[in-house]
Amino acid sequence: MRTPSTLLETNCLVLAKSRLLDIAPIFNLIQAGSLNGNFSNLYAQPRYMAGLGIQLFSLWRGGRIRLPDGTWHRANMQVLRVGGDFAGFVILRHETGQPSEVEIYMCGVEDEFRAKGLGEWMLRAALSGLPGGCSLFADCLPDSVQMKSLLKKLGFDQTSLATSTQVPGCAQRFVRK
User: Fold this and answer.
1) Bridge-partner residues for 78, per DSSP?
2) What is the DSSP secondary-structure string of 70-108?
3) Within 10 Å of residue 155's Cβ, how many Cβ atoms?
4) Residue 152's pLDDT band (boundaries 50, 70, 90)?
């Protein structure tokens, strides 16, 4: 099995700024994840599908994301490539007025690349680019078992049930100081 370290040694593993052509695979990964409970099931509804496409384009184009409450936030979208192919993505959102508070807004790894440590490598690489002293958080849906496990491995603690305007339903908040 090729691990993240062997892929790095052969220059096959890269976390890079997203490109326009990455929007479709990111969209598809979010759609698949919404059907199994990893993302909001609203993304499976046509109205929200259109909004998701617009969100991803706006994020790629302008580095900003609009939340359901209508507020705009600075964010960045990076993609994981294995041998040049799309393998996953991560979106980090910066709190308005709180530049040192960052949310892991969304992330996902394609099925064929799961259970190989690539999600952990991707998040570590994305988080390592943040300024020191950042407060990090993520809101997870109850069915996001793999993400919750990964967050705990990365030193996040589950603090509470998040009553969030961003995540419909009962999300669980994870925090790392």
Assistant:
1) 17, 90
2) S-EEEEEEEEEEETTEEEEEEEEEEETTEEEEEEEEEEE
3) 12
4) very high
Q: What is the DSSP letter of 68?
A: T
Domain positions in the chain are 4-176
73 or 164: whose pLDDT is higher?
A: 73
Which token pair is 66?
């609009």
Domain 4-176 has CATH 3.40.630.30: yes
Residues in the chain: 177
Tokens standing for 31?
């759609």
Task: Tell whether the torsion through CA atoms of 55, 58, 59 and 64 is positive or negative.
Answer: negative
pLDDT in tens, 76-130: 999 999 989 999 999 999 876 666 789 999 999 999 998 889 999 999 999 998 8
